[in-house]
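Model: Ready when you are.
Researcher: Fold this.
Model:
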Amino acid sequence: MPKQLLEAVLPPGKSISAQSKSGHGSQRCRLEIDGNTALSAGVEWYDEGRPLDFLAGLMMPPVGDAGFERPHKLTPDKRFLISDSAAVGLVKCADPSYIDRDVKGDLFTKMYVLGGQSNEEEIKSLITAYTEAMTNSAACRNEIW
């Protein structure tokens, strides 16, 4: 993701760290600023035809974190569900042959921001860039199992 898009939504701080986890059809990354979760992003396979609002309902920030609003505004192309602090996106893989051969599902991106001063447009820009970056990723090649 472009640095300027991340900087727009992350809170200020002295230190940043990242933790990532892959497996079982998903890949996640969490950014921490000064030891506090600031952004969680992931890409995950779900059964074909799952609606975006179903995935938004599954999003859960760490216990005790405030400022998280589940995505609820659908974009005109119906690929993204967005709020001021979270979003879900549908990935359109550049080479769908892996999907057709290996899994019958859809690939989605999810993210939420905590502690920053994000707005809907910034979140939309961030989830769009992240989702587009996934179109040629290991996730689209079904390499995250």
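Researcher: Now this one.
Model:
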Amino acid sequence: MENLFTCINLVFQMMLTVTMVEVLRIEWLGMAPMIGTNCLICWKLFTWARRMCPIKGIPTWRHVDEATQSAIIQSVLDKFKISDDYYGNLVAQQAVHRKCYNIHRNWRHNMKLHYKHVKNVLHVDPYSHPYEHVTQEDWRHLIDDVWKIYK
């Protein structure tokens, strides 16, 4: 399980530097396919973050309330063993929170790119084309309040 944790550290792109020895050990074990956008753990984090994170008043992962953050992380921990003692391992916790922060940021960025594309390239009403899995009310909030400088 320690090797899996080493791989997850690399996947989560922690602020700590991963040594070349760890990278070689991961590739040697055949765990390299977990790295990148197809990582199943990353996909689960994204899915739960998208379902559970509110959009209004939450510009970044750090603004998501602690109960929601814990629920998202626990849903991933129920399916994957990230560390032998996740709650006692500060490095594992930091890695998961950093990945959640990046996933949330990318999700918000992709919504904004969708808005710009609909408005500027397709030249259609962006209010009638909300981003996938976003309610009409949340989409209107993003356009009117968050991205008002792009109107």
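Researcher: Key takeaway?
Model: The chain has one domain: 2-150.
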